[in-house]
Amino acid sequence: MQKIAVVTDFDGTLMEQNVGGVLMEGLDVLDEPQVPLASRLFREKKVGSLAWIEAAYPMLAGRQEQVDKLIESVHLRDGARDFIDFCQQKDVSVTVGIS
Length: 99
Fold this sequence. Notes:
The protein is mostly helical. 49% of the residues lie in helices and 10% in strands. It has 2 domains: 1-16 and 76-99, no CATH class; 19-74, no CATH class. The model has no long low-confidence stretch (mean pLDDT 91). InterPro entries: HAD-like_sf, HAD_sf. It comes from Paenibacillus alginolyticus.
C-alpha cells in the first residue's frame, strides 16, 4: 500500500488569520525602517523571503509577553483540528509549510 502525506500552509489555511501579519501589525514591526525596504525588495524579487524574515522577526525579540497576548486573538480554521487528528489517527504525516 502506498503511503500518503499531507502538505499544508499555516497562515490563512489552518489558521483563520495570517499569524505573522497579526504579529507584525500588532507590534508595529512594519513601521521599522528596514522592514518596508525588505518588503519592497521581496516584491521586486530582488531578495527571497528569508531576507524579509531576517529584517522583521528580530523585532519580536524580548517581546514574548506581547506576542503571547496577540496569539490569543488568532484561531484555528473550523475543521483544522479535526483534520489534523484524522491524519494522526490514520498515520498520515502532515507537514506545515510557510509561504
